[in-house]
Amino acid sequence: MRPYIGICDFTAPEQAHRLLQLIPHGFSHDLMVGVMMSYKTLNNLPTKWARVFPAKKNIRSIFVDDPRVLNTIHYADYATGVDADRQLAYTLAKVEIYGGACLGAIQLDMIWPDPDELKKFREHCNIPIILQVGANAMRECGDDPIATCERLKTYGTTINAVLFDKSMGRGVGMDAALLAKYAGVLSFDCPHLAPAVAGGLGPSSMDLVAPLIRAFPDLSIDAQGRLRKSGNMKDPIDWSMAEDYFTQAVALFSKQP
């Protein structure tokens, strides 16, 4: 799985084609085309995001067939405990179907999903999985990078990458020094897992991630909340802002050896 520069909330393939024009020949990172789905939108349940997330039947039409693209469904379900999805393997099998032939990865926006369910899913589907480790997941591990990576070891090879993301789409600026600790421990204790970070990235905040990119040239990054002038997650992406963010990200990674 190659590192990527991600944007979440694509709604049409033309948006991806616009950004692909900005990738130089032989560039180190792919473009992650992120599309949101939740347990509720998957199962036709009422949700405040119904007009924001694309209809599940339309997701495959958003993805583009290009080797420089990592088409990814960001599947969100933060229910835990007795409310957790006890049939996650079956659920993810349905998610994969809606992704279509060009689906390249599934990101789990969840709080420590059941490792056994992920193992069941991967026995029948070899699609890469990115696990979001957000603020709540970190808190369950005492906000300790070592304890967090110990928890990640319980997943074995069922996951391929880890997104450290305390913002979780809300546009809150990342703490680069803190995320460097998480990425550093991950690279030492779990070298088979690719590191990724997110948190408040956009065209006016790429300085937040620049130190991390210098320290980890193979890092992946993702942006969502700060790609809207309004700052409102229920508004569509401003693709001029997205293009600016992506251009700056390409320049930062191009400077690395």
Description:
With about 260 residues, the protein is α/β, with parallel strands linked by helices. The protein has one domain (about 5-255): Alpha-Beta Barrel (TIM Barrel). The protein has ten helices and eight strands. The chain has helices at about 15-20, 40, 60, 90-100, 115-125, 135-140, 145-155, 175-190, 210-215, 240-255, and strands spanning about 5-10, 30-40, 70-75, 105-110, 130-135, 160-165, 195-200, 220-225. Strands 1-2-3-4-5-6-7-8 form an eight-stranded parallel beta barrel, surrounded by four helices. Helix 4 packs across helix 5 and helix 7 (about 145-155) packs across helix 8 (about 175-190). The longest helix is centred in the C-terminal third of the chain and has 16 residues, at about 240-255. It starts with a strand and ends with a helix. This is Phosphoribosylanthranilate isomerase. InterPro entries: Aldolase_TIM.
Describe the secondary-structure layout.
Elements: E1 4-8, H1 13-20, E2 30-38, H2 39-42, H3 59-62, E3 69-76, H4 88-99, E4 105-109, H5 115-124, E5 129-134, H6 135-140, H7 145-153, E6 161-165, H8 176-189, E7 194-198, H9 210-215, E8 220-223, H10 239-254
Parallel strand pairs: 1-2, 1-8, 2-3, 3-4, 4-5, 5-6, 6-7, 7-8
